[in-house]
């Protein structure tokens, strides 16, 4: 049985199933292992991990600890309770309508950040003027409808991860700041900071940055340097704002002080820095990487919500869920009726009941005529179905964006 335990209850002879820290490259050679020495427990604790999952069939048990399914159910019910009361942000156009423009804007931004990163690798400076129009266009698209651009941001290949991730963090920062009601100038500066937050990675040797296996402790230390490198590159960038630099310099700080490079705690971290930490982890979790397959957005949000007990500001995590929805546009979901559907739009009444397009019956295993269902409506208005769970598009061999 897989159980969630506090690191304080961890003992030699227990079998670690999951260190519960997917957001970081951590200094352990294997993810699953039997604890053999107290030194390992100290290392886990020193990494800022507070809770781990153990496999009681392979090692010692903690009788009072909850099982993984109990934890998952509890978290999901808390998220649904929150989502049922929360309304999404107003949107000027539908996501499907914005998708064509968003695609162009997204591609241009990717090309731009790719060029900028190459420049930095060659020892050149960041030319901020080149970025201003790209961030402005991204912002316009997000203000029309954030679902279109953000669903494109989830598409990445293993080899273009670093720059596509930069664009995603920029777009997510713009969207998040807008949802927080921040002013135009702050939104723009946060977007710039998001696009450039990992620019310091260009100073890290490629062999370490894209190493497919687990990192050694030394390599882990080298990767961590990217934050200080980012800060230095940005400090030397002509015309950049302090706010943009904060996004980059604080994106690995954690609410409980377990982050780096400064180990800042709570309000010592700027609001933008705290927000950057959330969006950076969200994008990393939902992306395919050399060492793992990306998680569906809803799972990633649940993990971030779970970690917000220690690592993230819980209020900001809730605001982020409101910003992108607990079933973001493009999420594949299974309905109670047995139909598969894709989320096409958030709904004005509740984040838990978006508008979806149904297209497949899992009961008869056939495609059905695509139809839009507003899950917030009652039976007489064409509604009455509800989301049972989200599904992985890979499992069904589908590209959900095709249905937008
Ligand atoms: Fe980073
Ligand atoms: Fe990052």
Overview features:
single chain; 404 residues; alpha+beta; 3 domains; five-stranded antiparallel sheet; binds fe (ii) ion
Helix and strand pattern: EEEHEHHHHHHHHHHHHHEEEEEH
Largest sheet: 5 strands, antiparallel
- Count up the domains: 3
Which structural category fits the helices and strands? alpha+beta
Strand order of the largest sheet: 8-7-6-5-9
Here the CATH topology of the largest domain equals Hypothetical protein af1432
Name of the CATH first level of the largest domain:
Mainly Alpha
In angstroms, what separates the terminal alpha carbons? 40 Å
Give the overall pLDDT as a whole number.
91
CATH homology group of the largest domain: Hypothetical protein af1432
User: Which architecture of the largest domain would the CATH scheme give at its second level?
Assistant: Orthogonal Bundle
């Amino acid at each position: 049985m897989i159980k969630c335990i506090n690191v304080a209850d961890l003992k030699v002879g227990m079998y670690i199933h999951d260190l519960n820290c997917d957001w970081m490259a951590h200094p352990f050679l294997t993810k699953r292992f039997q604890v053999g020495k107290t030194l390992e427990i100290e290392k886990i604790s020193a990494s800022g991990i507070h809770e781990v999952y153990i496999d009681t069939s392979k090692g010692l048990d903690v009788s009072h600890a909850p099982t993984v399914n109990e934890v998952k159910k509890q978290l999901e019910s808390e998220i649904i309770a929150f989502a049922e009361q929360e309304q999404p942000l107003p949107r000027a156009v539908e996501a499907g309508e914005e998708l064509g423009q968003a695609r162009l804007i997204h591609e241009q931004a990717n090309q731009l950040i790719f060029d900028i990163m190459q420049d930095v690798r060659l020892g050149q400076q960041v030319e901020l003027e080149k970025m201003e129009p790209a961030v402005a266009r991204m912002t316009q698209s997000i203000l029309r409808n954030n679902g279109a651009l953000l669903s494109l941001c989830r598409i990445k290949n293993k080899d273009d991860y670093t720059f596509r991730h930069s664009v995603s963090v920029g777009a997510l920062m713009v969207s998040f700041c807008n949802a927080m009601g921040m002013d135009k100038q702050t939104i723009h500066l946060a977007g710039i900071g998001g696009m450039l937050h990992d620019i310091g990675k260009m100073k890290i040797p490629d062999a370490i940055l894209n190493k497919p296996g687990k990192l050694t402790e030394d390599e882990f230390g080298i990767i961590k340097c990217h934050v200080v490198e980012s800060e230095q590159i940005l400090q030397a960038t002509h015309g950049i704002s302090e706010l943009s630099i904060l996004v980059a310099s604080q994106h690995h700080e954690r609410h409980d002080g377990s982050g780096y490079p400064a180990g800042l705690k709570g309000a010592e971290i700027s609001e933008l820095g705290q927000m950057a930490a959330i969006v950076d982890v969200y994008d990393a979790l939902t992306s395919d990487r050399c060492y793992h397959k990306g998680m569906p957005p809803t799972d990633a949000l649940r993990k971030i919500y779970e970690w917000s007990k220690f690592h993230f500001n819980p209020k900001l995590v809730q605001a982020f869920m409101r910003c992108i929805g607990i079933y973001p546009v493009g999420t594949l979901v299974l309905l109670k009726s047995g139909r598969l559907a894709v989320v096409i739009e958030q709904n004005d009444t509740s984040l838990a009941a978006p508008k979806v397009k149904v297209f497949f019956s899992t009961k008869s295993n056939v495609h059905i005529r695509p139809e839009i269902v507003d899950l917030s409506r009652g039976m007489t208005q064409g509604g009455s179905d509800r989301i049972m769970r989200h599904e992985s598009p890979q499992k069904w061999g589908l590209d959900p964006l095709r249905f937008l």
